[in-house]
Amino acid sequence: MKRYTVTIDGTAYDYPAGVTYAQIARDMQSRYPDDILLVNRDGKLRELYRHLDRDCHLTMITARDKPGIQSYERSAVFLLLKAFYDTAGAENVDRVIVEFSLSSALFLRATGNFNLDAALLERVEARMRELAAADLPIEKKVLPTDDAIELFHSQRFEDKARLFRYRIDSHVNVYTLDGFSDYFYGYMLPSTGYVKVFSLEVYEDGFLLHLPSMKDPSKVGTFNPSRKVFQTLRDDTAHAAALGISNVGELNDLIARGQSEGLILTHEALMEKRIGDIAQTIAARHDVRFVMIAGPSSSGKTTFSHRLCTQLRACGIHPHPVATDNYFVNRDKTPRDENGNYDFEGLGAMDVEQLNQDMTRLLAGETVEIPSYNFKKGCREYNGDYLTLGPQDILVIEGIHCLNDALSYTLPPESKFKIYISCLTVLNVDDHNRIPSTDARLLRRIERDARTRGHNAQATIRMWPSVRRGEENNIFPYQDSADVVFNSSLIFETALLQAYLEPLLFAIPRDSDEYVEAKRLLKFMNYFLPLPDDVVPKSSIVREFIGGGCYNV
């Protein structure tokens, strides 16, 4: 029998051809505190059911790794769906929809001939644990696309059947668990026995699937949701449904019918109305002198602040935008994180003293030269941008730390109006495959960094974990202190960004650590029909990332 050399953590092992990666993982499991869920074979992810067919280097993937926790989430959703249909009866279930992530849980809705209450969820969770204890295989089958469409029609999964009408590939990977079949975007675990940590809970008009976090996969993560963010997500999900676009298949239908221009203009009009409503709220509060706009990376803070200024002027207010990015310390003074990389996300990267001095002087009626930051050179510059405030003027200050009063400690608290902005995705691939908001922001940032900051896609992906850690520490803890939450997500933006991003992602070397993430993003964007940008208004938030806008951002 042919044998292969498998190198793991620098040590070579001899295995027979045809052994599964699951068996190799079992041999290595004692070295890892968490279950091995996938393997990375020479830069490519592989599910554990697959067989060894070559000499290779393997890296073990657990739930402490991004691909591992994503596979765990998908498999937990599959287990939940199987248990829900078993418990409620397939004939009684119309739809179960995974709507969005909320803290360390997923928020779902379910409709049909049943009462969605604690008693039902208790039975569903018990069925999930029964299936997990049985360690049933999660089987992967490759079906011709037409057969997959027919299968999902028969199961009344019309969202999936619609999605695959636009599939170029002639085959679809379908997963089956004890006779229940579904499609999932991404890799899955080999059996139900790997899904050990979860719980269910009624929440508002839906329910929660609590899951573990990457920090500690041995227990469900701490659930500390933002009520304001939840309300925004729920409202915007309802608006998307009213427009008839809740998933990628419905968006592709509209693009294929040549109706994308109407969608873009309608969505932009809705966003402009929301910005106008915020401006009227600010105008009604006569003590406001500072509008503080904060949000995670690539939320569109700069464009939003400009559009808000336009609406404030329409209300008779004289706003002056100030970007805190211009108050970064010079690159040689930027603090570094535990890995030795620049920490651009922490408050220590900001010249807080200079910002407060300038803002205080402006309030006192003095003229101040506002700096600009040259990201390519890594230094602050002064180019004659002078500003003087009149007694009725307002400063519109935007930056990731603006909800943190430590950034503006000299400014009177009662004079601040705080706005939390984020790209909160409500469009999903289908009912059971959500699109994480972090993915939408990463796609935005890849294009913006390449266009304006001299960073290629590989560098942006490499920095992204540090960016996310900074958001967890510096932004999310303050989001509920905001007076208003604004969702900058555009339902059509991934279809629009696709043409910009594909060349950048394909340029990432196959032997790099970032290739796995690049491949995942490319596969994700392949679900969308492309959308040209010629009808996107110059004031659109997406222009901040693709260019061609009317604002200097």
Structure description:
It is built from 15 helices and 21 strands. It has helices spanning about 20-30, 65-90, 120-135, 145-155, 160-165, 225-240, 250-255, 260-285, 300-315, 350-365, 435-455, 455-475, 495-505, 515-525, 545, and strands spanning about 5-10, 10-15, 35-40, 45, 55-60, 95-100, 105-110, 140-145, 170-175, 180, 200-205, 205-210, 290-295, 320-325, 365-370, 370-375, 380, 385-390, 395-400, 415-420, 485. The strands form 6 sheets. The chain has a 5-stranded mixed beta sheet with strand order 2-1-5-3-4. It has a 5-stranded parallel beta sheet with strand order 14-19-13-20-21. It has a 4-stranded antiparallel beta sheet with strand order 6-7-12-11, with helices on both faces. A hairpin with a 2-residue loop joins β1 and β2 (about 10-15). α4 runs antiparallel to α5, α11 (about 435-455) packs across α12 and α11 packs across α13. The longest helix is centred in the middle third of the chain and has 25 residues, at about 260-285. The model has no long low-confidence stretch (mean pLDDT about 95).
